[in-house]
Request: fold
Amino acid sequence: MNATTVKQHKSSFLLIFSRLFVGFLFVFSGLIKANDPIGFSYKLQEYFEVFHVAFLNNYAVAFAIVLCSLEIVLGILLLFGLYSKKVALGLLLLIVFFTFLTFYSAFFNVVTSCGCFGDAIKLTPWQSFSKDLILSFFILIIFLNRKKNTASVFQ
Reply:
């Protein structure tokens, strides 16, 4: 094997690992929260209060259902390599938003548990922010390789 081939294999491995890791994590997270959308809506209401958009409280359950569904769908589409450009963009937008949210929450100590995995796994704001930074790295790999991202990871 020459150096170019080795580099391509490492790049392919990193992309496949990123897709598996992010895909399964998004599906897992979405399913955990979908198990209790009312509980997740309470967490959303905490964030609405912090950001002074309490008028959204009446829509918290709908937001919770949409967000859980979006996580599950994006995770599944990522794993199967479908709509790779749109999925990569959607993941990037979500992680940028969540990273900001978790940093704000951690830095100002306003929401003490992110609700990322419902009640199944409790994370402190700083743990959640760290998780989002790690996820950002893998999502960035997916985004930068979005044109190569068309095959299912199960093939």
